[in-house]
């Protein structure tokens, strides 16, 4: 640049600032991904250490597939996730529609109640359910029907649905806020009644939001630890509980392999959801 | 307002009823129970003593220096983690915001991918790096920099690191949302009027992106102060925080009333953040 | 007017990646002048403004303000202020705080700020709105606040980047006159960027017409309008007829142009003209007369057929086909000086124009034609 140099300090400050931003960004991405990459690399180690790579092997992955406890935990996680997602998505969507389109008393109060599970510390939610089941729910059921119940997969499910509903609600509600009402008016203008307007105009347009909420609920349920650990009792665990028990004990390539599988599964879900979003 | 149809207002409550009932029974009621249980005596073998005996002994016990210390430590750690997340996350948000539009969504995706993966797995990823038999030590031993493995884990440092690792995406997302909406031409206008970069940032950009920053603070501080998984895995029992303390009361210690009192104390501590969360933005437009 | 040069661009070039937005542009803007940069989108006018303001640095060349080279001096240290196209009012500050911002940056004592701000708001005729926020104001009000915010700092030069674009027509016209009289009163040099040629003609002391990163012509509104230097300028400014033809013969005083239909007309001499060369003749619709006085010398005369008559309010446009099919537009006042009623469709009429009212340009490829 053929420019008469003058007051270089301020131009320099700007360039330093820009470089600083880039360095910070790079640092953060490295920080976020290096541990994960190392995790994946060492899952292929041929010896039982995660300190040095000695060779390549798939042995740890093979072991995963014959691990009975692991497979049971995985199955439990999937069942609970699918069920809680289904229930929470339906309830959350209905709630979002109700809250968005109708005004009624207690609306504001209920909106607050719906947001609470999102902001409450998870551990508090977990122990509250523990107390609830043991001190209120079971005794009442016993009083009514004489049946003596205990914590199990179904109590886990109840807890998951409880924290999933708000997330679905929030996501679908956000979609509704930006919803173009004139489209529904156009449909009615063309002769569609309320029901058909809903099914043929509102619902399809809302579907990406609903699916987004469902995906969120599914992921949260699969990943949940704190609420699950207090509602599981001595029943067979879910995947996060199983991982926790392993991780507590130490650091081995088996956990690396399991973690890698889970990572890839999550990434797969993300790619799917992005592909679905791109089509809209 | 979006609730346009002045439909029979019985529809609304009907649609909302299932979720309302469910949450009242399985969410609100349990919380009320926590409150109640914190005021009754513990049973001899755990649980509660029946018939119920009211007491405030557990709240009094909370003021024991030991427990006050743990609460303060948790707040300290949470503030540290929040500070690191905000101070590194904000510049990241600016960096992404200044990138060309096509690149921005890819960059944000890169930030969010860890957010979508299992929290335990991510915490473990940190652990396997810092453990005595883990990657960092392996590297340092291997190149001969040290003779004995460093004790990098089971201390406050590793807990803080693990918490930052887990919660950084939570901070970046709302801050980036605010930064992206910020009109950069305002910075040019400030510069045109005589403000250098520092003054333009402090007087124009920061105030206008503050909602995102405050949301980030709430979204990090609240979960971190009551965190359990990370201090448990990265601290190995040596770093006691509120979360691990509460867990102990409902686990081996079997002191449910005390644990409930602690939980209530925790909730009181974060209630300010929770209230702020509701005040900001109107219904349906919150920075999740 | 001191007669000094307020702003100068010397051979300023600006390259953005693969795009060269400005190509070695040189301009001199005089003290106290209302100077417009006029051209279509992408012509480089906004880039020029940003170079002066300091938001961009030239890739080559120099920017001088008040005779001083600006070098790498950043925007916040330059003695100029800008009125942005989108106003760029700070949404979180009141009107008062917005206008006071520049004064605060220069550490003007608090006791004096109040007076300066209310003076500035009075100057733009917006008193009493100090406590409002920008989003509570109308577009026109916001525009004035942006103006006050810039003027309160008494810059040597005020830069305005299409400030009236977002206003509706009536408001825009009113603001044009207001800005012009404001500039007269305050005496500051105004550099005004616009794509609206009517606006530039109305307000400016001098205009620089730009396209493709080059300055095509600099002159007073009159000069630009009557004596366009290139076909592009002729076409961009106002309305003009463009007639294609070929050089038939040359004399030392004029060129004879042969039209495809066989007619011959005279045009002003241009350098380097060669017989047989393709040329374009430009003549403004209001200079063409129907049934001209045959006794006047120096008049071109043609016959043409009317195919459309359009009522434009104060004027009427008559569209005609020349014998070769080219379209010619005649514009005349609807009432008043006309001796006869406007012609009807299909009517054959005679028309003509004075030779010196036309311009001749050499026909080249599209890109070259711009540069001609």
How would you describe this protein?
The complex is a heterotrimer of chains A (280), B (288) and C (372). Chain A has two domains: 1-42; 59-278, MetI-like (MetI-like fold), CATH 1.10.3720. In chain A, helix 3 packs antiparallel against helix 8. Chain A is 79% helix and 0% strand. The radius of gyration of chain A is 25 Å and the shape is globular. The longest helix of chain A has 35 residues, at 8-42. Chain A is mainly α and 280 residues long. Chain A contains eleven helices and no strands. Chain B has twelve helices and no strands. Chain B has helices at residues 11-37, 57-62, 65-98, 101-116, 119-130, 135-142, 156-181, 185-192, 197-225, 229-235, 242-250, 256-279. Residues 1-7 and 281-288 of chain B have low confidence and may be disordered. Chain C is α+β, with helices and mostly antiparallel strands. In chain C, 24% of the residues lie in helices and 35% in strands. In chain C, the strands form four sheets. Chain C has a six-stranded mixed beta sheet with strand order 6-7-8-3-9-10, with helices on both faces. A five-stranded antiparallel beta sheet of chain C has the order 13-12-11-14-20. A five-stranded antiparallel beta sheet of chain C has the order 15-19-16-17-18, with no helix packed on it. In chain C, a hairpin with a 2-residue loop joins strand 1 and strand 2 (19-30). In chain C, helix 2 crosses helix 3, helix 2 runs parallel beside helix 4 (139-151) and helix 3 (110-123) crosses helix 4. Chains A and B meet through helix 1, helix 3, helix 4, helix 5 and helix 6 of A and helix 1, helix 3, helix 4, helix 5 and helix 6 of B.
Write a concise synopsis of the structure shown.
The complex is a heterotrimer of chains A (280), B (288) and C (372). Chain A is an all-alpha fold.
SSE order and pairing:
The complex is a heterotrimer of chains A (280), B (288) and C (372).
Chain A: H1 8-42, H2 59-65, H3 68-101, H4 107-119, H5 122-145, H6 153-177, H7 181-189, H8 194-223, H9 226-231, H10 239-249, H11 253-278
Helix pairs in contact in A: 2-11, 3-6, 3-8, 3-10, 4-6, 6-8, 7-8, 8-11
Chain B: H1 11-37, H2 57-62, H3 65-98, H4 101-116, H5 119-130, H6 135-142, H7 156-181, H8 185-192, H9 197-225, H10 229-235, H11 242-250, H12 256-279
Helix pairs in contact in B: 3-7, 3-9, 4-7, 5-7, 5-10, 7-9, 7-10, 8-9, 9-12, 11-12
Chain C: E1 5-16, E2 19-30, E3 34-38, H1 45-53, E4 60-65, E5 68-69, E6 80-83, H2 95-105, H3 110-123, H4 139-151, E7 157-161, H5 169-186, E8 189-194, H6 197-203, E9 206-211, E10 214-219, H7 221-226, H8 231-236, E11 241-250, E12 254-258, E13 264-268, E14 278-283, E15 289-290, E16 299-311, E17 315-321, E18 327-333, E19 348-354, E20 358-362, H9 366-371
Parallel strand pairs in C: 3-8, 3-9, 6-7, 7-8
Antiparallel strand pairs in C: 1-2, 1-4, 4-5, 9-10, 11-12, 11-14, 12-13, 14-20, 15-19, 16-17, 16-19, 17-18
């Amino acid at each position: 640049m053929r420019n008469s140099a003058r007051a270089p300090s301020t131009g320099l400050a700007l360039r330093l600032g820009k470089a600083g931003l880039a360095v910070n960004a790079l640092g953060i991405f490295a920080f976020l991904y290096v541990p994960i990459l190392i995790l994946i690399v060492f899952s292929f180690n041929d010896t039982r250490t995660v300190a040095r790579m000695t060779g390549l092997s798939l042995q740890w992955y093979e072991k995963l597939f014959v691990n009975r406890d692991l497979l049971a935990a995985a199955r439990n996680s999937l069942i609970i996730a699918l069920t809680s997602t289904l229930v929470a998505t339906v309830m959350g969507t209905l709630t979002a529609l109700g809250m968005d389109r109708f005004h009624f008393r207690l609306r504001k109060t209920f909106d607050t109640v719906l947001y609470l599970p999102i902001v409450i510390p998870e551990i508090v939610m977990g122990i509250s359910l523990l107390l609830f089941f043991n001190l209120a729910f079971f005794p009442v059921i016993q009083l009514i029907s004489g049946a003596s119940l205990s914590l199990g997969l179904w109590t886990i499910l109840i807890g998951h649905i409880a924290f999933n509903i708000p997330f679905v609600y929030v996501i679908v509600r956000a979609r509704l806020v930006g919803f173009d009402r004139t489209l529904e008016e156009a449909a009615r203008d063309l002769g569609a009644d309320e029901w058909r307007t809903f099914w043929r105009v509102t619902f399809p347009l809302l579907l990406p939001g609903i699916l987004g909420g469902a995906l969120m609920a599914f992921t949260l349920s699969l990943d949940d630890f704190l609420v699950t650990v207090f509602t599981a009792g001595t029943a067979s665990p879910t995947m996060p509980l199983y991982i926790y028990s392993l991780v507590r004990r130490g650091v081995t390539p088996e956990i690396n392999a399991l973690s890698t599988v889970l990572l890839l599964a999550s990434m797969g879900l993300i790619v799917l959801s992005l592909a679905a979003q791109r089509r809209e | 307002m979006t609730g346009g149809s002045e439909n029979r207002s019985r529809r609304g409550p009907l649609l909302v009823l299932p979720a309302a009932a469910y949450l009242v029974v399985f969410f609100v009621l349990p919380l009320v129970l926590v409150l109640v249980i914190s005021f009754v005596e513990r049973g001899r073998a755990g649980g509660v003593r029946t018939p119920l005996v009211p007491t405030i002994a557990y709240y009094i016990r909370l003021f024991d220096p030991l427990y006050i210390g743990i609460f303060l430590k948790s707040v300290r750690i949470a503030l540290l983690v929040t500070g690191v997340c905000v101070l590194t996350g904000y510049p990241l948000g600016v960096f992404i915001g200044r990138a060309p539009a096509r690149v921005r969504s890819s960059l944000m995706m890169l930030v969010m991918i860890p957010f979508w993966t299992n929290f335990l797995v991510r915490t473990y990823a940190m652990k396997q790096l810092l453990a005595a038999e883990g990657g960092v030590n392996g590297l340092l031993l291997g190149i001969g920099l040290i003779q004995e493995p460093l004790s990098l884990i089971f201390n406050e440092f590793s807990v803080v690191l693990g918490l930052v690792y887990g919660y950084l995406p939570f901070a970046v997302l709302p801050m980036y949302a605010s930064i992206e909406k910020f009109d950069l031409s305002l910075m040019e206008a400030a510069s045109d009027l005589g403000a250098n970069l520092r003054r333009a940032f402090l007087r124009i950009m920061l105030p206008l992106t503050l909602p995102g920053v405050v949301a980030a603070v709430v979204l990090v501080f609240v979960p971190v102060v009551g965190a359990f998984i990370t201090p448990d895995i990265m601290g190995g029992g040596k770093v006691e925080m509120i979360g691990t303390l509460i867990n102990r009361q409902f686990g081996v210690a079997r002191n449910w009333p005390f644990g409930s009192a602690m939980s209530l104390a925790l909730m009181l501590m974060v209630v300010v953040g929770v209230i702020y969360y509701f005040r900001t933005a109107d219904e349906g437009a919150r920075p999740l | 007017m001191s007669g000094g040069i307020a702003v100068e661009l010397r051979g300023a070039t600006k390259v953005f990646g693969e795009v060269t937005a400005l190509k070695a542009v040189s301009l001199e803007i005089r003290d106290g002048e209302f100077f417009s940069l006029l051209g279509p989108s992408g012509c480089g006018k906004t880039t020029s403004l940003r170079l002066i303001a300091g938001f961009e640095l030239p890739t080559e060349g120099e920017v001088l303000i008040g005779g001083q080279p600006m070098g790498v001096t950043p925007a916040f240290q330059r003695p100029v202020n800008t009125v942005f196209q989108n106003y760029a009012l700070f949404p979180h500050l009141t009107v008062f705080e917005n206008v006071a911002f520049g004064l605060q940056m220069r550490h003007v004592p608090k006791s004096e700020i109040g007076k300066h701000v209310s003076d500035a708001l009075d100057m733009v005729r917006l008193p009493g709105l100090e406590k409002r926020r920008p989003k509570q104001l109308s577009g026109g009000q916001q525009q004035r606040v942006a103006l006050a915010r810039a003027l309160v700092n008494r810059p040597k030069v005020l830069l305005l980047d299409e400030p009236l674009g977002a206003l509706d027509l009536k408001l825009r016209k009113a603001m044009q006159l207001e800005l012009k009289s404001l500039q007269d009163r305050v005496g500051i040099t105004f550099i005004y960027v616009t794509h609206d040629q009517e606006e530039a003609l109305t307000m400016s002391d001098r205009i620089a017409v730009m396209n493709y990163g080059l300055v095509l012509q600099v002159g007073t509104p009159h000069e630009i309008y009557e004596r366009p230097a290139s076909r592009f300028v002729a076409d961009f400014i106002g309305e003009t007829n463009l007639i294609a033809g070929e050089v038939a013969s040359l004399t030392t005083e004029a060129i004879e142009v042969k039209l495809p239909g066989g007619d011959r007309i005279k045009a002003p001499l241009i350098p380097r003209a060669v017989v047989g060369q393709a040329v374009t003749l430009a003549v403004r619709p209001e200079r063409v007369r129907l049934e001209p006085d045959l006794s006047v010398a120096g008049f071109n005369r043609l016959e043409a057929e009317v195919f459309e008559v359009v009522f434009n309010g104060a004027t009427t446009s008559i569209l005609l086909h020349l014998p070769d099919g080219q379209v010619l537009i005649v514009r005349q006042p609807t009432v008043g000086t006309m001796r006869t009623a406007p012609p009807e469709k299909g009517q054959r009429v005679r028309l003509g124009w004075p030779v010196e009212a036309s311009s001749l340009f050499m026909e080249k490829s599209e890109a070259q034609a711009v540069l001609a």
